[in-house]
């Protein structure tokens, strides 16, 4: 990978998770039960009537290693400062900005609070590998819906790709943005891939009321076959929605 945008992305999605992926989780295989099923969710899991979780609530609602260790995943805490190192990227097309913003910490609308994690699981022999990043965010009224709407627009209007530029002026070319089928979770869900420079980032996002869960990842050993395991998405959404319901009282 070339350029500072690539270096920043690599550090976030690869280097920060490498120990988890190829150390703690060595010899584990990815889940094979992922089955695409439609776009979005038909069930009103939670609504904007639920007040957004604060930072402490988000921390408790975010997956911990103990939640998924039995399935071979490793999860490590990651600070916003670590993720923001190197500056946030900007897209050359306004409609594509919500997608490229996932590579940093500057979002529009801005969440009231966010929690970040790195995740990993992998096996050298089978080349079944997952290194990823998890973000769970809370928003002021309307912010979560606007976030998902922006991502949907980016997927629709940026199919042919876009160029991202980081804070130092270095550029990264994404040649394609491809919509994928999304499991029926939360109030809204979408999945898509961003490809370029010999690798593919896989992204899954779910809105649960005033909250958005985003998982992004790649296969370190076979970058063009990257996926985000659906079992991770489902586990995170379930834990978050349980916390939201408890917060509502």
Order of helices and strands: HHHHEHEHEEHEEEEEEH
Helix content: 25-40%
Largest sheet: 7 strands, antiparallel
The low-confidence parts are 1-48
Number of E strands: 10
Cα distance, first to last residue? 48 Å
Rounded to an integer in angstroms, the radius of gyration calculated over CA atoms is: 17 Å
Strand order of the largest sheet: 1-3-4-10-9-8-7
Any overview of this molecule?
By secondary structure, the protein is of the alpha+beta class. It is globular, with a radius of gyration of 17 Å. The longest helix has 19 residues, at 230-248. The strands form two sheets. The chain has a seven-stranded antiparallel beta sheet, sandwiched between helices. A three-stranded antiparallel beta sheet has the order 2-5-6. Helix 3 (55-61) crosses helix 8. It is built from eight helices and ten strands.
Considering the chains and any ligands shown, give keywords for the structure.
10 strands, 7-stranded antiparallel beta sheet, 28% strand, alpha+beta, disordered N terminus, globular, 249 residues, 3-stranded antiparallel beta sheet
């Amino acid at each position: 990978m070339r350029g500072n945008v690539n270096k920043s992305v690599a550090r976030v999605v690869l280097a920060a998770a490498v120990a988890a992926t190829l150390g703690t989780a060595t010899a584990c295989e990815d889940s094979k039960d992922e089955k695409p099923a439609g776009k979005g969710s038909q069930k009103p899991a939670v609504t904007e009537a639920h007040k957004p979780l604060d930072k402490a609530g988000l921390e408790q609602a975010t997956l911990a290693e103990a939640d998924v260790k039995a399935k071979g995943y490793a999860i490590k805490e990651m600070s916003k400062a670590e993720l923001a190192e190197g500056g946030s990227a900007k897209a050359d097309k306004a409609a594509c900005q919500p997608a490229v913003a996932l590579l940093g910490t500057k979002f529009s609308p801005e969440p009231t609070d966010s929690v970040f994690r790195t995740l990993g699981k992998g096996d050298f022999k089978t080349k079944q590998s997952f290194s990823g990043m998890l973000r769970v965010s809370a928003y002021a009224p309307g912010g979560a819906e606007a976030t998902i709407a922006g991502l949907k627009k980016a997927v629709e209007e940026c199919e042919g790709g876009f160029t991202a530029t980081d804070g130092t002026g270095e550029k990264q070319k994404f040649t394609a943005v491809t919509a994928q089928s999304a499991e029926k979770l939360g109030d809204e869900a979408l999945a898509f891939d961003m490809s370029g420079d010999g690798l593919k980032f896989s992204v899954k996002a779910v809105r649960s009321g005033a909250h958005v869960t985003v998982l992004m990842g790649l296969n370190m050993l076979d970058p063009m076959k990257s996926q985000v395991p659906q079992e991770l998405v489902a586990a995170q959404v379930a834990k978050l929605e349980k916390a939201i319901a408890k917060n509502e009282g």
